[in-house]
């Protein structure tokens, strides 16, 4: 998948913000990791790396392969991967956010911090109403932003305020995916490190009757082949209400 046109200038801003970061010549790695991960990441300038070169590194970065300065260099390419391929867990927004925190990104230059935050903000807003086959669903971009200490109310209002059928489809997926976690009273994967305040805000928002209303309002507008996702979620909500 190519970079969505609306994201291209936002991604380019990231490449420019990190253009002066020195390219590493070597990276330390855990003895339990293949040296091939570091070698492939270092094989070419980051912008020229194939997905198979950067993907394995993205999941191990700052933990078992390389350090914070290395991650800073590769970050723009990893951000590009986050909107073009869903095959690499290291490019999932919550993982990228976690690696940013580990890399002390708040100590980076104002230009670099601003570019990263702008990317997370804008891609989240885009993902809410993006085509249903787009990479990285909106809930993961929501989680990533919250892990970077964004105010939950503003993020949640963006989703609630989007009346497109795509936004309702994403919301239905999100609500259904949390059903078992609600039953077990535990947090789903990726959400464990969220602050209590952000967690409570998302749960309250997701369980609000407005969620059901937003999904119902899209039933007549969603593509026929996608309607089952909305119907399934509405059946789930109805079942929960009867319990």
Blueprint (SSEs and pairs):
Elements: H1 8-17, H2 35-41, H3 51-60, H4 68-82, H5 93-102, H6 110-128, H7 138-147, H8 152-160, H9 165-177, H10 179-184, H11 196-207, H12 209-217, H13 227-242
Helix pairs in contact: 1-4, 1-6, 2-3, 3-4, 4-5, 5-7, 6-7, 9-12, 9-13
In short:
The protein has 13 helices and no strands.
- What kind of assembly state do the chains in view correspond to? single chain
Give the percentage of residues in beta strands.
Answer: under 5%
SS-based class: mainly alpha
What's the shape?
A: elongated
Count of individual helical segments: 13
Q: Could you give a short account of the major beta sheet?
A: none
Mean pLDDT: 93
Helix content, binned percent: 55-70%
- Kindly state the number of beta strands: 0
Roughly how many Å is the radius of gyration? Answer: 19 Å
Spans where pLDDT lies below 50 across 5 or more residues: none
Query: Secondary-structure element sequence?
Result: HHHHHHHHHHHHH
* N-to-C CA distance: 43 Å
Describe this entry's structure for a reader.
With 243 residues, the chain is mostly helical. The chain has 13 helices and no strands. The longest helix has 19 residues, at 110-128.
Features:
single chain, 60% helix, 243 residues, 0% strand, mainly alpha
